[in-house]
Design a protein that fits this description.
heterodimer; A: alpha+beta; Immunoglobulin-like; 3-stranded antiparallel sheet; B: alpha+beta; Beta-Lactamase; two-stranded antiparallel ribbon; 5 helices; AP-2 complex subunit sigma (chain B); ARM-type_fold (chain A); Clathrin/coatomer_adapt-like_N (chain A); AP-1 complex subunit gamma (chain A)
């Protein structure tokens, strides 16, 4: 059964009650169409069949068998047939299919047609599906049509040009010659196409970029014409003349002026004009202003313009439209790298957006808030973020508490403030704190805090735990603190003064009120255990205001035992918290060894768990019970004494945790002018570029020679120049210097200098004074360029961080990126996962490789690289040792 | 540039699909389902019309039961493309005279014709409603 017309088929599908019915109808119809293709060779039948087939395709069924028929239909002389045929081609074929080359002839013939509409159809099809081969075959036809007297064809031809350039960038010559005349075309459609075409060429070739820079005055004139009286009223939207063209031109200007101060200066006036003249009350107006701000920030424009751009975006934050706030936050986040002071001015508005109705705006506001944090504003921002933390979306919380920990650690000035705020983080979001951050916090208190701060932390923890035991890491850390510092925790006459100093804390031991609180809270804790539904944080308890002083409690030993045993007995805490609580109880026996009443209550508390179903809980309870028995009095003190501070190397937080865009934006000179302006822009620019290129060449050269060296004599030389006896003093000296100059930027050079002295044989690199924080090209092929940027933290003199940056400079996306590194045995290696495995065109991906190099031998890397580009898997293995000798 | 354009209804049935980048048939199927899941589940009132999608961004707008989605590069101007969607819908509306989903179902090949007059090679080609409509009228008189 075959339905006669398209309409009938659509109706038949629409009345189907079930998916099975629909499948049946489609199957029958597909079979009928297939038969018809075989038996009937008439274009009329084909026309109907292809139409039906395309409908079936849209429903999601396979119709590949119709591809050839589409090509046949295209050959028909009738416009209607061709239209459906070409539509079928664009939908059913993709550029990977060989069959596409069969299309080339039809396209060529149609582009020579006398009927403009048929030429238009062919150009449209070419623009949408052309492959590399088709691009080569038809570029001449497209070129011819660029000069067509019909604007309708010129505009389609420019966009066909865009497609050709995307597939084969080296075909740019004919298009570049016409760029000027096309840009000046009086039809807006042609201008739109010309702008897109020039931008595309500039992205691919330097020659086009140079031409684009020469054309800046022409482009600026077109933009000025748009700002003036309406040159083409039918393109106006909401009283603004062709906003789409304005946006496209601003975007093109961004492409050509990146990295050129000369071009940026030419744009200064027109960008200011756009910013001041555009009506921001309509969406189209904001779209233009937004593009204008992005352009002003992305080129080395003058400071006044950049500030204006930031203020424009700041104003967007107060806009009622979600979309406008969204783009403003995204742009400000990227701009914070270069324009931190101007962005800081809008901090209050950004923080307001943390409470926005739109989750994506909240997410962006959060990112930006963290990116804004520095030494001077860390306190208010952390307080604000802590305030929203309890109400934040679940998916944000883990990253929020992580970044809060990083911000507090990196920027907090006083130890007391850091401890207080880490406690706030734990008490408000302890469920989401990861174990490493919690250990860092405990380590901080055990290692760096003095007795007063340890006491303070323990007292606050005690008070917080009495309020709430639902935040897991708070329970673990707090219980540990209470157990470890129990002797400091209780009231002693000599520290009453310290406690009295803090205004809101209960003064001088337990008075009646405190007893009330303790009495009340001992019970709720137990009650909580009985009723499973109260496991969430009770609203009253969660209302800890981050701007207020933290509560402190000064309990008696008996209160401590009661709290710990309540925690151990609570059913809402995790097993690991319970284990810590039991251990803390055991520790109390050492802290309060002289009070037999306390010991007795500890034994009772432990005794409750000797029958626990959890093996670990039970064994701890039994073992500690045994430990507390009288026959072990002699050894007990040693066992439960204060723990030595944990010894393990701390991995410090990196600043990019707070501002990931900082990682992505390497070449700031492209978008920002240097502080000292060279007098001659053009020459200064090209000279700098030349220098950069020369340096890249040089480093490439040295890679080659070093690689050769590595094969025969280099390893021997390294071991010879670093005798075991000499290595140690160098290390010690380097450590000394590294830690002595914590905040200055000199450690790299100093360590370099030390190294210089120690092993003069290696210092022939010539880079001895620089080397760190600059980019080294290590690989460039198939459009993928990889660089390594070594850097060091002053606190870790033996560790070199190598930031690998993968630039996709080709025109195909790179996927399945796999970057493996090996180092000599004397060095240790840590590889972080990459920021992505897929690099779209023009994007970058970064990956951190950390080399710990205690013997300070030269860094040699063996690299295994795998990726897929254009469907082809690439595998490479190579060595790199092009770092100057100072990078060790 | 625009990577692809999808028009889907609330049930996820595709009413229009146009691919300006290279995607295999399999990828197309996957993307259609994914876009529908991403876009339809969003809160239409309180959320912006932009959503991150793999390495790109989707700009979408809902008209009655239909979602019009443009997948664009992340450095493109979202606000301008949102306006572009509106222009496309306006043109469809004038062309069909008060357009509804059924018009798009029965005349899907005409919807493609409209789109081809407005967007080519992933770039906006013509932004004047009157120019596009005038052209479309001439084209239909040829059939």
């Amino acid at each position: 059964m075959s339905f006669f017309r398209l309409k009938d088929l659509i109706r038949a599908v629409r009345v189907c009650k079930t998916a099975a019915d629909e499948r049946g109808v489609i199957q029958r119809e597909s079979a009928a169409i297939r038969t018809s293709f075989k038996e009937v060779d008439s274009q009329d039948a084909r026309y109907v069949n292809i139409q039906k087939l395309l409908y079936i395709y849209l429903l999601g069924y396979p119709v590949q068998f119709g591809q050839l028929e589409c090509l046949k239909l295209v050959a028909s002389p009738k416009f209607a047939d061709k239209r459906v045929g070409y539509l079928g081609v664009t939908l059913l074929l993709d550029e990977k299919q060989d069959i596409l080359t069969l299309l080339t002839n039809s396209l060529k013939t149609d582009m020579h047609s006398t009927d403009d509409y048929i030429v238009g159809l062919a150009l449209g099809t070419l623009s949408n599906v052309a492959s590399s081969e088709v691009a080569y075959d038809l570029v001449d036809e497209v070129e011819r049509l660029l000069d067509s007297p019909r604007s309708y064809l010129r505009k389609k031809a420019t966009l066909a040009g865009v497609r050709i350039i995307r597939r084969e960038p080296e075909l740019f010559t004919p298009f570049l010659h016409r760029a000027k005349s096309l840009l000046g075309d009086k039809h807006h459609g042609v201008q739109m196409g010309a702008v897109a075409l020039l931008a595309e060429m500039c992205n691919h070739t330097q020659e086009a970029l140079d031409e684009g820079r020469r054309l800046v005055p022409v482009i600026v004139n077109q933009l000025r014409a748009l700002l003036g009286s309406g040159s083409s009223p039918e393109h106006d939207v909401g009283g603004i003349s062709n906003p789409f063209l304005q946006v496209a031109i601003l975007r093109l200007l961004r492409v050509v002026a990146r990295g050129s101060q000369h071009a940026a200066d030419e744009l200064n006036d027109v960008l200011t004009l756009v910013a001041t003249q555009t009506d921001s009350s309509k969406n189209v107006g904001t779209a233009i202003l937004y593009e204008c701000a992005v352009t002003a920030l992305a080129i080395p424009s003058e400071q006044a313009l950049r500030v204006m751009a930031i203020n424009m975006l700041g104003k967007f934050l107060g806009n009622r439209d979600n979309n406008v706030r969204y783009v403003a936050l995204a742009t400000l986040s990227a701009a914070v790298i270069t324009e931190a002071p101007s962005v800081q001015r809008h901090r209050a508005t950004v923080i307001q957006c943390l409470r926005d109705n739109d989750i994506s705006i909240r997410r962006r506001a959060l990112d930006l808030s963290f990116a804004l944090i520095n030494e001077s504003n860390v306190k208010p921002i952390v307080t604000e973020i802590l305030r929203v933390l309890p109400h934040a979306d679940l998916e944000f919380k883990p990253s929020m508490v992580y970044r809060l920990s990083a911000a507090i650690t990196l920027f907090g000035d006083s130890l007391e403030w850091r401890i207080d705020n880490m406690l706030r983080v734990l008490s408000l979001g302890g469920k989401y704190v990861n174990a490493r951050d919690m250990f860092k916090f405990i380590r901080l208190i055990a290692l760096e805090a003095d007795e007063n701060l340890q006491r303070r932390a323990a007292r606050i923890s005690f008070a917080l735990l009495e309020r709430d035991v639902s935040q897991e890491k708070m329970v673990v850390a707090g219980t540990w603190l209470v157990g470890e510092y129990a002797d400091l925790l209780v009231a002693r006459s000599n520290n009453a003064a310290a406690v009295a100093a803090s205004p809101t804390s209960p003064v001088g031991g337990l008075d009646d009120d405190d007893l009330d609180i303790l009495g009340a809270l001992g019970k709720p804790l137990a009650k909580k255990g009985d009723s499973p539904d109260s496991s969430g944080s009770a609203p009253v308890l969660a209302a800890l205001d981050p701007s207020e002083e933290l509560p402190q409690a000064i309990p008696e030993p008996a209160d401590i035992v009661r709290l710990l045993s309540a925690i151990a007995g609570s059913s809402v805490v995790s097993n690991s918290s319970r284990h810590i609580a039991l251990t803390a109880l055991a520790k109390l026996s050492g802290r309060f060894a002289d009070s037999s009443a306390t010991l007795a209550s500890i034994r009772t508390a432990l005794g409750k768990h000797t029958q626990s179903m959890d093996v670990e809980t039970q064994s701890r309870a039994v073992e500690f019970g045994k430990l507390l028995s009288q026959e072990l009095d002699a050894v007990r003190t040693g066992v439960v004494d204060r723990m030595p501070a944990p010894e393990y190397t701390d991995v410090p937080y990196e600043e990019y945790v707070l501002n990931p865009t900082a990682m992505r934006m390497k070449a700031l000179t492209i978008i920002k002018r240097p502080a000292m302006q060279p007098v001659d822009f053009v020459e200064g620019e090209s000279a700098k570029e030349a220098a950069v290129r020369a340096a890249a060449e040089a480093s490439k050269q040295s890679v080659v020679s070093d690689l050769l060296n590595l094969m025969d004599e280099a390893p021997a030389a390294v071991t010879a120049s670093q005798p075991a006896t000499a290595a140690k003093p160098v290390d010690a000296l380097a450590d000394l210097l590294g830690s002595a100059t914590l905040s200055s930027t000199s450690p790299p050079t100093k360590t370099a200098a030390v190294h210089h002295v120690a092993s003069p044989t290696e210092s022939s690199g010539g880079f001895a004074t620089e080397g760190l924080d600059s980019e080294y090209d290590i690989y460039n092929s198939h459009g993928l360029r990889i660089t390594l940027t070594p850097s060091k933290k002053p606190t870790l003199p033996t560790v070199v961080d190598l930031l690998a940056t993968f630039y996709n400079e080709g025109e195909m996306a790179v996927s399945g990126l796999n970057f493996l590194v090996a180092v000599p045995k004397s060095q240790k290696l840590q590889i972080q996962p990459p920021s992505g495995q897929h690099i779209s065109v023009g994007a970058t991906v970064t990956q951190l490789v950390r080399v710990s190099n205690p013997t300070k031998t030269a860094i040699r890397l063996r690299i295994k690289l795998g990726y897929t580009v254009d469907g082809q898997a690439q595998e490479n293995m190579f060595e790199y040792n092009g770092f100057p000798a100072s990078v060790v | 540039m625009i990577r692809f354009i999808l028009v889907q209804n609330r049930q996820g049935k595709t009413r229009l699909e146009k691919w300006y980048s290279q995607y295999s048939n399999q990828e197309r199927h996957k993307l259609k389902a994914e876009v529908h899941r991403t876009v339809a589940s969003r809160d239409q009132k309180h959320q912006s019309n932009f959503v991150e999608f793999h390495n790109h961004r989707i700009v979408y707008r809902r008209y009655a039961g239909l979602f019009f989605c443009f997948c664009i590069d992340t450095n493109d101007n979202e606000l301008a493309y949102l306006e572009g969607i509106h222009l496309f819908v306006e043109v469809l509306d004038s062309y069909h005279g008060n357009v509804c989903e059924l018009d798009l179902v029965f005349n899907f090949y005409l919807v493609y014709a409209v789109l081809d007059e407005m967007i080519l090679a992933g770039e906006i080609q013509e932004t004047s409603r009157s120019v596009i409509l005038g052209r479309l009228d001439q084209l239909s008189s040829l059939e």
